[in-house]
Amino acid sequence: MTRRRHIVLTGGASGIGAATLALFKADGDRVTVIDRGDPGPAADRWINADLSDLASIAALESLSRIDVLVNAAGLPPRPGLEWTILRVNTQALIALTEHLLPHLTPGGAIVNMASKAGGKWRENLAQVQRFLALDASHDLDAFLKEEAIDPVRAYDLSKEAVIVWGLSNIERFRDLGLRINSVSPAAVETPILEDFMTAFGARATRGVDLTGRAGRPDEIAQVIRFLASPEASWVTGCNVECDGGLTAQLEYTALTAAL
Question: Each residue of 207-231: pLDDT tens digit?
Fold first, then answer.
């Protein structure tokens, strides 16, 4: 009998995480959800954890024989949440991955939730590296002040850092028999979509206008499912843009305008 895969999924109680949970369960996988919200009976196990508290991650009980880790938990750009956005979207993602790394089985996969908002990581690489160089004890409020980071920039930076951290660990994880990829949606119809539309303003409106609609959680979940599957065995170090062609349109327009 084939062993059921063990999936660890953060943010599985709502939005893209909940859609991903449903797909894994449909495949017969065993899913442990780490979230402050209750994912309900769909999850085989729920660990109630506040990912903004890195100490709670270090204290998590051992989860043995993990085949896939999906880091889908995250916060939107809201005023006053700059510190928490950087903590949850990036630092907690890294801390949890490192905490669970000894329990990930060779042949396994890590899929991180990035964003179209992280697409300018190349232009902002110096700041991204400064952020990633901070340890858990560093005063994030001081960093925010020094770097003049507002809520939108905090969100963009958090997702740029997720992409860059994944790229910087391809070789290390490959030596452990693991793949690491990220997924970058544009606007998606989730309970926090309004937060993005409000925070990004014309930037978000133009994106939806260009693609014709916002994405659906299940459309992003299908990409996560593929990256977590054996069918993606030769796919690692990729940031998959699930954005209805938004990035391609913007890049093509910019290139042709420069001719």
Answer: 999 999 999 999 999 999 999 999 9
Pick the closest to residue 51 from 12, 88, 99, 101 (CA basis): 88
Q: What angle do CA 192, 185, 35 make, to 5 degrees?
A: 50
**CA–CA distance, 121 with 114 (Å, rounded to integer):** 11
Closest CA relative to residue 90, chosen from 36, 134, 148 = 134
Q: Which two tokens stand for residue 210?
A: 């260009």
Question: What crossing angle do the helices spanning 202-211 and 193-200 adopt, rounded to 10°?
Answer: 120
Tell me, what DSSP letter sits at residue 188? B
Angle between helices 246-257 and 202-211 (to 10 degrees): 100
Q: Does an H or E element contain 206, and which?
A: helix 202-211
Q: Would you give the distance in Å from CA 33 to the centre of its chain?
A: 15
pLDDT tier, 1 (very low <50, low <70, confident <90, very high otherwise): low
What integer pLDDT is reported at residue 259 of this predicted model?
A: 85
Look-up: residue for tokens 């051992």?
Answer: 62
Tokens 């969100």 correspond to what residue?
155
Nearest to 130 by CA among 118, 113, 119, 143: 143
Q: Kindly list the strands in the beta sheet with 239-242, ordered across the sheet, starting from the edge strand earlier in the chain.
A: 45-48, 30-35, 6-10, 66-71, 104-113, 179-185, 239-242
Q: Measured between alpha carbons, how far is 171 from 221 in angstroms, rounded to an integer?
A: 26
- Tell me the mean pLDDT in the region 68-80: 97
All structural domains of the chain, each given as residue ranges with its CATH number in brackets, are 6-257 (3.40.50.720)
